[in-house]
Structures are given as structure tokens and as C-alpha cells.
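Lab notebook, design round three. We kept the backbone fixed and only want residue identities now. Task for the bench partner: fill in a sequence for the structure below.
Input C-alpha cells:
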């Protein structure tokens, strides 16, 4: 069960980052999500969008800690590390 909780936490981190990126693009730019991703990638700002989207991982992390789901919270940290490596490569 430990590895499953860790995997769930990593998936929560990726989902939270996707939702955060979507919110940022929809609220802060005049573009739609797919068009905004394409334009930001062309400008070289896609890593910054992913980083801003990862702010929701803090919320997920602390909510999981509040509900005593420490392994899922570790998974969120693992997912954030994976997203950091991905951001460095983009």
C-alpha cells in the first residue's frame, strides 16, 4: 500500500500542476489553454508556466498532511521533483 500512496501523491502533484497551469493561462492571458501552451512554448516561457502551476502543489501537500496522509504528501514532493526536472529540460 505504501508504493500506491506514493504514486497517488505523484499523480495528485501532476494533476494539481496541470490545473494550476490551466488557471494561470485562462485568467492571466487572452488565449485559450491549447493556444496559450503553444504560444508560451514558442516564446520559451513554458517552464515558467509549469512552475507557476506547481504552486497548487503546496495546497495539496498541506491538505494531505492535515488529513494524516504522509505518504501521499511525500508523493506530492516526488511529483514536484519530477516536474522540476521536466521544467529544466523544456
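Proposed sequence:
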Amino acid at each position: 500500500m505504501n508504493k500506491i500512496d506514493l504514486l497517488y501523491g505523484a499523480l495528485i502533484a501532476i494533476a494539481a500542476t496541470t490545473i494550476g497551469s490551466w488557471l494561470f493561462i485562462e485568467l492571466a492571458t487572452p488565449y485559450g489553454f491549447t493556444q496559450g501552451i503553444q504560444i508560451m512554448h514558442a516564446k520559451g516561457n513554458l517552464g515558467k508556466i509549469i512552475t507557476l502551476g506547481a504552486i497548487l502543489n503546496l495546497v495539496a501537500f498541506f491538505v494531505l498532511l492535515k488529513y494524516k496522509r504522509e505518504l501521499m504528501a511525500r508523493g506530492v514532493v516526488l511529483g514536484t521533483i519530477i516536474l522540476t526536472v521536466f521544467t529544466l529540460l523544456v
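Keep this in mind before ordering anything: Residues 58 and 76 are 9 Å apart (CA to CA).
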